[in-house]
């Protein structure tokens, strides 16, 4: 298989997951992120059981679970006012397998476990 040098724009969940998968297959990956550091922005990202299984396959599921929260409800809100429109309890199986990264640095921590720089090295 050919090995490529790949640039990924965006160090969010999708970008870092893609980077991990590509690194595992032997490609050289550099992730470019515009933000200077990871900060909480007032939103959560829920990872479904299948997404968590995929992260298990990349070897970072345990690190994710150590810092993640587990939702007990599925809550919907209106976009404009934030008024709650529905609240559905999660089943015990969903609570066990669905996680929400609880820290803005969770993805970066998982990525650094692979000893790859998050930002390209300026010294070349």
What does this structure look like?
By secondary structure, the chain is an alpha+beta fold. It has a single domain, classed as FAD/NAD(P)-binding domain (3-Layer(bba) Sandwich). The chain is globular, with a radius of gyration of 17 Å. The strands form three sheets. It has a two-stranded parallel sheet. Strands 3-6 form a two-stranded antiparallel ribbon. Strands 4-5 form a two-stranded antiparallel ribbon. It starts with a strand and ends in a 12-residue tail after the last helix. The chain has helices at 13-24, 49-57, 61-67, 92-97, 106-112, and strands spanning 5-9, 28-32, 68-69, 73-77, 84-89, 100-101. 33% of the residues lie in helices and 20% in strands. The longest helix is centred in the first third of the chain and has 12 residues, at 13-24.
List keywords for this structure.
single chain, 124 residues, alpha+beta, FAD/NAD(P)-binding domain, two-stranded parallel ribbon, two-stranded antiparallel sheet, 33% helix, disordered C terminus
